[in-house]
Specification:
Elements: E1 2-6, E2 15-19, E3 29-38, H1 41-47, H2 52-55, E4 61-62, E5 66-74, E6 86-90, E7 104-108, E8 112-114, H3 121-126, H4 128-140, E9 148-152, H5 157-168, E10 172-177, H6 182-186, E11 192-195, E12 208-213, H7 220-223, E13 227-235, H8 240-252, E14 256-259, H9 266-277, E15 285-289, H10 294-302, E16 309-313
Parallel strand pairs: 9-10, 9-12, 10-11, 12-13, 13-14, 15-16
Antiparallel strand pairs: 1-2, 1-4, 3-5, 3-7, 3-16, 5-6, 6-8
The structure holds NADP nicotinamide-adenine-dinucleotide phosphate.
């Protein structure tokens, strides 16, 4: 089979469209013929060598973690899924050399679910990584109906799911994006959209129960004054400073600082699939590319102004 891989760290030019043996499912694993796979910033960050702790000793390795396709083979102990099932799933990026930007992916059954016919393969592939991150971030922040929620980076992958998830929960949502993100954002129906090139959202007079920086571009001191008493600041790209703030605020204040670290989880994926299937969650797929475009698509995503989800189609719908 063909798969995108890299054997050394670097720019998109280190990516190779490699010939690999077809994967064979091990215990608890399924092999899926990939119809669509979604891009995430983690793809290009791992390729660039930003998180060597996750990849040390594991090169060459594949690219991409979110997939949708049709199960071809199952390993020992697989009980829920069977060959022929259409599925959406996620590959654990830490422990897998095998990845989703490929003709076939071998992944654990525990992180895959049946894809209903009403949900397209590209939409199903768009859900896992960014969707689960948004759901977990807002849940841990204590999302509830009637709250005021501010989402920064609202037109990106995580942000576009967060805006919708908070609206579904009955929150009042203020969404922040660049001028170029406003048209896309309007389709997600936030209560208010702010263009950060025109309005300094950090100086807004109101207070929020949750400030979710889904873009990972701000610091807690920049956002602190926006928090209502007992409010939560959630950040998708935690570094040492944020963990220090989190610890310090636990000791000294009612407000919380919460680093987000996505934990691939079947129940959260299932909730996203259910809501996308019944239409409560709108599609955020803004582009469906071809396999040969993966290096260019990664290059574009690394510029930092992505809209919604970019998906690559590896096979026609069965
Ligand atoms: N911790 C975790 O487990 C986890 C999980 C998933 C993602 N992440 C990280 O979270 C970040 C976002 O992920 P993603 O998938 O949503 O990425 P994405 O699809 O590339 O979107 C990033 C968004 O950030 C916005 N942005 C860039 N600069 C900004 C600024 N100065 N102010 C406000 N918004 C800005 C961009 O849109 P504009 O054009 O509007 O600027 C873009 O829509 C990435 O760094 C990713 O690695 C972490």
């Amino acid at each position: 089979m063909k798969a995108w891989t890299f054997a050394r760290y670097g720019g998109p030019e280190v990516l190779e469209w490699s010939d690999l043996p077809d994967p064979v499912p091990g215990k608890g694993e399924i092999v899926t013929r990939v119809v669509a796979a979604a891009l995430n910033p983690l793809d290009w960050k791992l390729r660039a060598g930003q998180y060597k702790v996750m990849t040390a000793g594991r090169l060459p390795r594949g690219v991409g973690y979110d997939y949708a396709g049709v199960v071809e083979a199952v390993g020992e102990g697989v009980t829920r899924l069977k060959p022929g099932d259409a599925v959406a799933g996620i590959v654990n990026p830490v422990d897998s050399r095998n990845a989703a930007m490929a003709e076939r992916v071998c992944a654990t059954e525990a992180l895959a679910t049946v894809k209903p016919a009403a949900l397209s393969f590209p939409d199903a592939a768009s859900l896992p990584g960014a969707g689960i991150t948004a759901v977990q971030a807002l849940r841990e922040a204590g999302l509830a109906a009637g709250q005021r929620v501010l989402v920064v980076g609202a037109a990106g992958g995580v942000g576009s799911f967060a805006v919708q998830w908070a609206k579904i929960a009955g929150a009042h949502v203020t969404a922040v994006a660049s001028a170029g993100g406003q048209a896309f954002l309007a389709g997600l129906s936030p209560d208010r959209a702010i263009d950060y090139s025109v309005t300094d959202w950090k100086a807004l007079p109101e207070r929020f129960d949750i400030v979710f920086d889904a873009s990972g571009t701000t610091t807690f001191p920049q956002c602190r004054r926006l928090l209502a008493p007992g409010g939560a600041f959630v950040h998708s790209l935690p570094g040492a400073a944020l963990y220090c703030w989190s610890w310090w605020m636990k000791l000294t204040a009612k407000e919380r600082v919460m680093p987000v670290m996505e934990r691939p989880n079947l129940a959260d994926l299932q909730a996203l699939v259910d809501m996308a299937t019944d239409g409560r969650l709108k599609s955020v797929v803004t582009r469906v590319g071809r396999p040969e475009e993966v290096p260019d698509l990664q290059r574009e995503m690394a510029l930092g102004h992505n809209r919604g989800k970019i998906v690559v189609r590896f096979a026609p719908d069965p």
